[in-house]
User: Fold this.
Amino acid sequence: MEEGLYSGIAQFLPSPALLVLNNSRVVEARILFQKSSGGYIEIFCLEPHHSYGNISQAMVQTGSVLWVCLIGGASKWKAGQILTKQLDEIKLEARFVEKRKDDFIVSFSWSPAEITFASILNKVGSIPLPPYLKRSADRTDIERYQTVYAKEPGSVAAPTAGLHFSEDLLKSLASKNIESLYLTLHVGAGTFMPVKSEKLADHEMHEEFIEVRADQIEVLISKLREPIIAVGTTSLRTLETLYWLGLMVNENKNISAAEMHLHQEYPYKQLSHISSGVALFSLLEWIKKAPGEKLITKTQLFIVPGYSFKLVRGLVTNFHQPHSTLLLLVAALIGSSWKDVYTWALDHDYRFLSYGDGCLFLPDETRR
Assistant:
C-alpha cells in the first residue's frame, strides 16, 4: 500500500487509461412543510412515479407530478390533509396518495403552473445531506455537495468519490494521457441501506436510473485495450451494467426498452458469456435505433465477492461502512485484501464516508 494526495493521483494511475465518472447532479430533494398547527412534516423525494418512465421526464413536468417519497412525521399527516408551502410567488401543495411497504406516493401541484418540478425543488427544497453529517443543509451545499462535473439532475446523494476531483486535476490527468468519460447513474437513497439479511441472496438491492448515449458507448469500445477505471461505485455499477445489457441484446436483437432492466440475479444465472467488445457493440447497435440514440433504464446490479468484472479494471472510491453493499463491491474487486486496506485506514486515522479520504484499487494486471 502507498499513500499520496489526490493532486498526485496521476502517478498511481496507468497511462494511457480511461477514467469513467458519474455526472449526475444532486437535487434539492428534501421539502419541509409546516402544518397550521405548527408541527413539521418533511418529504424526501426519492424518485418519480413509474408512470413517467425516467427522472428526466418527471423533472420537466409542469403544474403537477407524482413522486415516490419518504415522509418524516407521516403519522401526523391526516388523510385528505393538504400540505402547503409558500415561498415568494410559488405556492406548492402536497397530497398524500398511497402508503406502500417502504415508501409513499405523493402528488405535488404548484403555481405558477408553467414552472418545472426541477425549478420547484431548486427554489423550495434543500440538499439531502447524508444523515451521519448530523446537520441541516444550507445554500452553500447546493454546490459543495456536488462534483465539479455534475450536470444531469436526479440524484438524492452525491457520487462522493468525485468530490475530490477539481477542474485542474482533471486537466492534469488529460495531459498525462488519462482521458475522462462521463456517464450518468442517478444515486438513490438505497445507497445508504445496509445489508441486514443473513444470506446475501436474500438482500434486495435498490434500483437506480442510468442514462447512456450511443457516442459514450463508442468511446468505451475504442478504449477497451486500455484500463478502464471507475471513479466511484456508481460509475462502476453503470459500466458493469452496460455489459449485461449488451448480453441481453446479443441474445435478443428485438428486446424492448421495457425489458432492458437489469435485475440483481441476472448476472449470476448466466451460463455463457461474451466478450466485452461484442457486448458493447451489440448494445451500441440497439441504442442507435432508440429515440435520441439514448437508453434510460434501471439497474439493480448487486456486486458481491465472486462476481466476474467485465469492463472495470480499477476503482477510485471512498472508505465505506460495514454491512454496506459498497463494501461488498470493494471486496469483490480486490478480494480478501480489503481487510488489510481497512485495517491500514483505521490504524492511520483515515476519514470515512462522504467527505473522507479516498483509495485507488488496481488489480495487478492494470499496474504499470
